[in-house]
Design goal:
11 strands; binds 6-O-phosphono-beta-D-fructofuranose; 12 helices; 7-stranded mixed beta sheet; elongated
């Protein structure tokens, strides 16, 4: 018999509830274990904000967006005394293993706690798909689906008005969402942080298209591309720039270079809200179940990962390596259609 704690930390992501459901149902099936939910990410661990989770608590949440546990950007090593600020809660609730569903930053915090003596199983979470050690993160497929649908809609209005539209998607410093959504919707150019942006080249593609009779051009832009001029961005509590809005600086330059009216649509948090796709529901369920298997078997310092078609444990250190950028071969395929 062991007690498993589960928390969701950092930005939310479609599929979090499916992971929580997977953890709870599987842990309870594996034996006389107990699962407790830690409220609002690391904050609940610092403030002993805990609730018990039984099978009935996680019925009906597979398809819901957000997280029933809440989340926050507070961190024990930034806002507390590290392990000391969570030790009391772990002890008071007899928590043997903590399942941390989080992105790069939260998994780094989890690794520090493991170094300091906590038993940890990580579950990689982010719409950005940039975590090392796993082929895909849950939430990414949903974000791509939402972005692709938006781009399809923007394309028809662009065509009616003979406009260029720049659709800005999330992804932090990596271009996964932009590349996949751009490929899925037949974008005429895709700008990502991994490839230096040349606006003259983009303008050339647009001018050529319009010369050949095309009545619109659709450019997908990752929020993390280098801005054409310095932007004043606010920073989050970890000192990372809060991205968003780079297309407002790119659009006037492109308009000047092409002579075509150029508009902007920034999708923002739309990409993180609402129900996960079927792919993400399945992936999240498998990740949650595997995390519970590892936790009830007494494993620690591992992250569950999708490798090919299998869900496998990988060392937590691997997940904390530098963020994973897009595959250059895939970008090269996308360039075939920049015409
Ligand atoms: O990491 C996920 C993500 O959605 C990024 O794509 C985006 O830059 C960031 O989080 C936004 O964070 P917040 O919701 O705190 O503004």
């Amino acid at each position: 018999m062991s007690v498993i704690g589960v928390l969701t930390a950092g930005g939310d992501c479609p599929g979090l509830n499916a992971v929580i459901r997977g953890v709870v149902a599987r842990a309870l099936k594996n034996g006389p274990h107990e699962v407790v939910g830690i409220m609002n990410g690391w904050e609940g661990l610092m403030e002993n904000d805990i609730r018990s989770l039984d099978r009935d608590d996680v019925r009906g949440i597979l398809a819901t967006g957000g997280t029933i546990l809440g989340t926050s950007r507070r961190d024990p090593y930034v806002h507390g005394d590290g392990y000391a600020s969570v030790r009391e809660t772990l002890k008071r609730n007899d928590i043997d293993t903590l399942i941390v569903i989080g992105g790069e930053g939260s998994l780094q915090t989890a690794l520090k706690l493991a170094d300091d003596g906590a038993r940890i199983v990580g579950v990689p979470k982010t719409i950005d798909n940039d975590i090392a050690g796993t082929d895909f993160t849950f939430g990414f497929d949903t974000a791509v689906q939402i972005a692709s649908e938006a781009i399809d809609r923007l394309t028809t209005t662009a065509e009616s008005h003979n406009r260029v539209i720049l659709c800005e998607v999330m992804g932090r410093t990596k271009g996964w969402i932009a590349l996949y959504a751009g490929l899925a919707s037949g974008a005429d150019a895709i700008l990502i942080p991994e490839v230096p942006v040349c606006l003259e080249e983009v303008a050339k593609i647009i001018r050529r298209r319009h010369r050949h009779g095309c009545k619109y051009s659709m450019v997908v832009v990752a929020e993390g591309v280098e801005p054409p001029q310095k932007m004043d961005l606010a920073t989050d509590i970890f000192g990372f720039e809060r991205l968003g809005g780079v297309t407002y600086h790119i659009a006037p330059k492109l308009e000047e270079l092409t002579g075509f009216e150029t508009r902007v649509a920034v999708l923002g948090h739309l990409q993180r809200g609402g129900t996960p796709t079927a792919f993400d529901r399945v992936l999240a369920t498998r990740l949650g179940s595997k995390a519970a298997d590892l936790a009830t078997a007494g494993e620690s310092r591992v992250m569950v990962a999708l490798r090919g078609t299998e869900i496998l444990p990988v060392p937590l250190e691997e997940a904390c390596a530098e963020g994973r950028g897009v595959n250059p071969d895939l970008y090269e395929v996308a360039t075939t259609f920049f015409d």
